C-alpha cells in the first residue's frame, strides 16, 4: 500500500484564490461543492437536526454534525450487508441523521436498487421487500441480456469489457437490467442521504501518484482531489479543451454498477466466467457455433494455465472443413507455441469466420478477445483532454481516453470522497463488508491520508482482532479529522466463535446466494446496528459536545 503521492494541499494551492472558476461551460474546475449539492445539504440538515432531537440530542442548525456512512465493497455480500444495515438504521430511528451515503464496488449495487425509488428512506420496508423478492427470483432472460449487449455495442464509441461485464455478469448478480440514469434521479431523493459512487482512474492507479479517486453523483463526476468535474450526463462524451465535441449516451445504472463493481473481474475465475457466457451467447449457424465452442474451451484452458494445443489443432481441422480444404491454418501446435499464441490464434479464427458469416455478435466476441488480452475496462473519453489550465496535471490532459475501474482495487471504501475539505464531515460510520482482514481498509485509508496530508484519525487495532473482531470500534478524531466508527460485518458478537465459518460461507466470488443465505446475511448485518444503537447515539452526542 505504499503510494507515492504529493501533498494534497499542493493539488489545491493553485485554486485557492479562484475556487469556483470553470475553464468552460462544460467542465468545472475548483474545490467548491456544486450548487446542487450545496442546496441539498441546506435542505437535509434540518432533517438531521430533528432526527437528533428525537434521540435527546439538541443543537442549533449551525452545529448539526455532518455524518457520512461509508459502505465497503464485497460483491453481493456488501450489497446485502448494506441493505440489512440501512433497514435497522431506519428501525432505530437513526437513518435520517446520515447526510452522505458513499459506496464502493458491491455496496453500490444496493445503492442503485434503493435510489430507483424516490425518497426510498420513507418507505424502506417495502423497498427492501421489492429488492429481496428480485434477488430471490429468476435470472434475467438471456435474450434480454443479448439485446442489452447489442445496444451497448451499437450506441457507444468506447464499447469495452465493462459493457460486457454489465450485460453478462452484473445482471446475474442484481437480477435486473436497470436502464435508468443518475441524472434522472435529480430532485427525486430529497429525503434520502446524498449518494456518492466511487471509482478510480486506472492509469493513475498504475502510476501510483496524483489523484486516482473519482466520484460520481447525480449531478457531477470527476476527480475528488484535483477538483475537476463534469455534468454526470456528459461523463463519457468526447471533449477537447474543456468543451464537448461529441455526445455519448449517459451511462445507465447497470453500467454504473459494472464500473463500480469490476474488482471481482481481477479474478481468473471471473475471466473464465466471461468466456463461459460467451459460449452460450452464440446465435450463429451450427458450424460457427461448434468452432466457437471449441475456441472458448481453448481460452478457458489457457486461463487455467493448461495446454490448449489439442483444441487449437481441432479448430484448425474444423476451419479446414469449413473452407473446403483451403484453410491456411494448417500448422499443428505444440504446448509451448499454443500457450504463447492463444490471443493471436483466437483473433485469426475470428478473421476466418468473418469470411463466411456476418454478425454483430461475432464482431463483439472478437473485440472481447482483444480486450481480455489488453485488459481494457471502463474506457471513456477524457473530459479533461487538452484542457489548458495549470490546476489540471499535465498527465491527465494528454490522453483522449481514460480507463475507470473499481475503487476497491486501491481502497475498499470511499474515504477520499467524503474527506474533501468542502464536505466538512464530522463523523464517518464505516460499514466494512470486506473479505479477509476487516481492518485492512481503514488502515490503508490512514496510510493514504498521511501521504496526502489529509487529516485522519489514528488507527490502532489489536493484532488478534483481525481474526476475532468485535462489532464496534471508535477511532477518535482530532482537530480537523473526523472520528471514525468502524463496524466489521462478521464479528464475535453476531457470529460468536464462527466468524471464519461465516466468512467462508459468503465468498465474494460466488455468483448468487440462496434465499436462506440472503435472509441470514440481512439479519447478521442488521444486528450490528441494533446491538450498537446506544453507542452510535453516544458518539454523535460526543461530536456535538453535549
From TrEMBL:
Keywords of the record: Hydrolase, Lipid degradation, Lipid metabolism
GO cellular component: cytosol; nuclear envelope; nucleoplasm
Pfam families: PLA2_B
Signal peptide (residue range): none
GO MF terms, alphabetically ordered: calcium ion binding; calcium-dependent phospholipase A2 activity; calcium-dependent phospholipid binding
Matching SMART domains: PLAc (SM00022)
Domain PLA2c, chain residue ranges per copy: 19-546
PROSITE patterns noted in UniProt: PLA2C
GO BP, sorted A to Z: glycerophospholipid catabolic process
Highest taxon above the source species: Eukaryota
Protein name: Cytosolic phospholipase A2 gamma-like
